[in-house]
Amino acid sequence: MARRWTPQRFMTLRRIRVAICAVTVTVACVLGFALTTHKTIALEVNGKKQTVQTYAISVDRLLEEQHIDVKTHDLVQSTSGDILANHAVVTVRSAYQATINIDGKEVPFWTVATSADQLLGFFNDNEEQATKVTVDIKNVYNQLTGGMVINKNGPVEVIADGKTSEAPNGKLPAASILDSKGIVLGKEDRVSVEKNGSSTVLRVKRVTHGTTSKTVSIPYTTQTVYDDSLEPGTTVIRQQGEAGEKKQTFNTTYVDGKAETAVLAKEETTKIAVDEIIAVGPEKPAETPSTSPSDGSSSDADKNDTADKNDSSNDNDQQKTDSKPATKPSSEPSKTSGSSNSGSSNNSGSTGSNQSTPKPTAKPTQTQTSKPTQKPTATSKPNNSGSSNSGSSNNSGSSSHSGLWHPTVAQAQAYARGAAAQRGWTGSEWDALVWLWNKESGWDWSADNPWSDAYGIPQALPGSKMGTGWQDDGAVQINWGLQYIAERYGSPTQAKAYWLKHNWY
C-alpha cells in the first residue's frame, strides 16, 4: 500500500532534494576550482630549471611557495604576466651591481648578465652614437664580480703594462685570465672589459700616486690716501704694486702614467704681494652756477616786502634791511662749495645768524675728500676674492658624484638601452621607450612639469618616490621608470598605446 501524500512528507522530500542539489553544486565548484587553479609551471632560477605544481594565482604567490627570495633589482619574468596560467614559464634572475663607464663617467649598474660580453652587448647599439661604454670590475678576486665570465664564446684580448696578448679561453673569470698571463694587480689597479669591433678586450690600468706643485700669482691690492698738499683733482702713485706668489702642492693620481685627478694638499706663500698706494688731492671746485637761485630768493623777498608794506611802513623798512644780508650767504657758499650737500646746509643755515653761514665753507671739502679714500678700498676686495677663488677651483675639481649625475641625452639613453635590454625590450620596444620619454621629458634629467610637479626623465609624480638621488641621478630616474612601465603596462609598446589614447601614461 502506497504512502499517502501529506504536507509533512512533501516538506521532507523537498529538503532532501535541496540538500542533494547544494552538495552537487559544491562538489562541482570544488572540482572546477581544483582543475582550473591547478597549474604546471616551468620555473627557472638563475639558469636552473624545474617543473612545479601549484595552485597559486599570481607569480608572487608562486615564488613565496617555492621559498625564493626576490630582492629589489632581481628580474622576474612570466610568459602569462602577473596572473599565472597553466604551462606558463617563470624566469627569475638575481641581479648584482657592476660598474659601467659611459663616456668616462662611472655609473653603478644593476645587471643580470651572465658575462661581461653579454653586458656589453646590451649597449652595442650605442657605439654608433659615439657613446663609449665599458664594464669596470672593481675587484677581480671577488667571488661575485670576479667570477663573472668575460666572454662565453671565443678568445679575449688582454692589454696590460703596454703589452697586448690573447687569452684563448674566454669562459674563464677575469682573475683566472690575469693569473694565466702572470699579471699581478695592485690594490688600486683597475680592470675593465670593453668591445673593440668584434673582439672583447680585458684591460688593466695601473694606478699610482704622486705629488705635483705649481706657482700661483697673488694679485696685489690698491690703497688710496688723501693728501691735501696736492693740487685739486690730481692723483700720484706713491708706491708701485707688485703681485705675490704662492706654491700649491697637490696629491695627484696617475692612471697608466697620466695624471687623472689632483687634490690640493697644502699651499705656502713664497712672495708677499706689495700693495699699490695712490695719493688723491682735493676735489676741484665746481663752476659757479647761474644766479637764478639768488634771483628767485630776491623775488621771494620782494613778495614779502609788498606784503609787509600793506601792514605798516616801519615793518617795510626793517624788511629791506633784513633782506640784504640774506641774499649774500646763499650766493657765497655756492662759489666755495662743490657739492649739492653744502648748498642744502647753507639753505638750512639761512634761518639762523648771518655770521654762521660763511664758516662751513672749509668743512664740506674735507667730508667730500674722505669719501674717495674708502671707495678704492672696495675695489681691492675683488682682488682678494680672486686669489681665494683660484685655490678653491682646484678643490672643486676633486669633488665627484656617484651614479649617472646630470647626464646628457646620449648618456641617459645609453644607460637606458642597457637596462631595457635586460628586460628584453629591444627593437620596437626600445623605439617605443625612446618615443615615450621624448614626449614626457625629452630625456632631460631636470625636466619639471610646472602644472603637476612631475619630475625627471620618466616624469614621476611626485619625483621623490623614485628614491635617493632622484633630483640629480639619471640612473635612479631610469630604473624607476622602467620598473613602473613593467608593473603597470608590461612593456613600452603597451605604455605608448595607452599614452596615445589618454595623452599621458
TrEMBL record:
The keyword Signal applies. Keywords: Signal. Residues 204-284 form the G5 domain. Transmembrane segments: none annotated. Residues 288-299, 326-403 have a biased composition (Low complexity). Residues 277-404 are annotated as: Disordered. Residues 300-325 have a biased composition (Basic and acidic residues). This is Lytic transglycosylase. The lineage of its organism: Bacteria, Bacillati, Actinomycetota, Actinomycetes, Bifidobacteriales.
